[in-house]
Amino acid sequence: MTQLGAFGRSPALTILSLSVLVIAWQLASSILSIPKFLLPSPIDVIHRAGQFGPAWAPHILATIKSSLLGFALAVGVGFALAVGMVRWPFASRVLTPLIVVLQIVPKVAFAPLFLIWLGTGLLPIVVITFLVSFFPIVVNATVGFQDVERDLLDLTRILHLHWTRVFWSVRLPNALPQIFSGLRIASTLAVIGTIIGEFVGSNVGLGYLIVIANNQVDTPLAFAAIIIVSAFGLGLYALVLGVERVCMPWRRSLEPGSALSI
């Protein structure tokens, strides 16, 4: 597991690091007497978040819904494309350039067009979230499916195993580390994609709230919304790590400090 996986293995260290950051932020705001509209202190942010009260609920729920739907769509489509490109090499040669071009184009440039094509509401935000997050899934899954020892594939041909049997027994288990690596990246990108969509065209959501707060120079409210978005992103990332540990329990025995069973 990569070093980023330490987030899931050492929650106490993560909390300690965040606590040090918050304390340093509070001290800097107090000692330097920075105006609240430039950089509010953590106390100012907490106070403003409390003032906003129950009004948080629809914005938080809207962002979570859009992020999860877009992420789920990216997982489904990305996995299906990866399987198809491995199964039919011609499809890989046709689709790979299109996928790369789609990834290169800035998604912010697409957002206003989606508002024209799809209207306002949930759908364009989910589509933007999908476009932002599906690329690492399809790329990592494809690499994982293809990166199988040649001798092992030759053995499956000698045994005349059907392609689906080879896929479920050989390619998929071999690709799990790559797949979850892509999922971890995509989980963070999904939240970013949702915020982009809410920036451009939405009347609800944490991204929309950040725009409104900035327009009103309500910096503490904007910071509070940013912190909530970050917390949700960390939670989604941790969820992917948890699923990874369930699907690949053998990886825990290979982590530093783990006891090796004989």
| CATH H-level homologous superfamily name of the largest domain | MetI-like
CATH topology of the largest domain: MetI-like fold
Q: Would you list the SSEs in sequence order as H and E?
A: HHHHHHHHHHH
In the predicted model, the low-confidence regions spanning at least 5 consecutive residues are 256-262
Overall number of domains: 2
Structural class: mainly alpha
Q: Please tell me how large the radius of gyration is.
A: 22 Å
For the sheet with most strands, the description reads: none
Average pLDDT confidence is: 85
Fraction in beta strands? under 5%
**Number of distinct helices:** 11
Per CATH, the class of the largest domain reads Mainly Alpha
Shape: elongated
User: How widely separated are the two ends?
Assistant: 21 Å
In total, the number of strands is 0
- What portion of residues is helical? over 70%
What is the CATH architecture descriptor of the largest domain? Orthogonal Bundle
Structure description:
This protein is an all-alpha fold and 262 residues long. It has two domains: 9-39; 42-251, MetI-like fold. The protein has helices spanning 6-9, 11-32, 42-52, 56-87, 89-104, 107-118, 122-146, 150-158, 163-200, 206-215, 219-247. The radius of gyration is 22 Å and the shape is elongated.
List keywords for this structure.
MetI-like fold; mainly alpha; 262 residues
Write the topology of this structure.
Layout: H1 6-9, H2 11-32, H3 42-52, H4 56-87, H5 89-104, H6 107-118, H7 122-146, H8 150-158, H9 163-200, H10 206-215, H11 219-247
